[in-house]
Predict the structure.
Amino acid sequence: MTTITHITETLGQQFHANVRVTEKRPNVFQVHAPFYHEDGDQLDMFVTPTDAGLRLSDYGMTLMRLSYTFDLDSDNKQRIFKELLLENQVEFDEAKGNIYFDTTPENLCFSLLHFSQVIAKVSRLDVLKRAFTSGLFFEMVNEFISTELKEFNPVPSAQPIPGRDDLEATCSFEIRPKPVYLFAVRGGSHAKVAALSFLEYQRAQLAFKGYVVHDDFEALSAKDRKRITSAADKQFVSLDDFRQHSKDFLRREMAA
């Protein structure tokens, strides 16, 4: 039978440090170890015996804590959240909101270290915000175009050179005197495709303006920043920049 003494002794031997364990209710043991949230609060981690060994869990405390400042209120946010857990090889009980990880007494220390890192990562609002924003970047660009830039006659997934789907732009704004071809860029590979596409449009002697909206311009390498800056007529360094200023720039293009 697993007891507080067994768990405490196991952790003490493996950590070579003092770790306190309290029984919250029958067969549910809370581990008090030097693992903390960014605000200094201790991570909520529990151990329960199972037929196969031990289960580490947070008993839904991580999502409850996160909900004070950030909601998983869409299918896409839920998907990215679950992918984050999957990448870290932990399980999620959706009905109870419980993050958990199965282990054995022999691997309890290593498992607890791993589990604490996952919980801390999930709890960090800035990391989650970035993950969500980055994961939804292309969808948010398309949504903004379809709702806020309709006056500029947007054509999604435009192919300025017929048959060259490898040079497909995120969107074409069919305005006079020149159409604007927009590329949404997240990372170096997208930046290379955008730069190459603009050069091929020029080689095909198309009259156009080349726009780029970046997920994070500063995250590009110096070489990629130089390449895309040389090829594009206008760059928006972030999605917020695009939302704030794209309409003004497109109106200027129409008045040129």
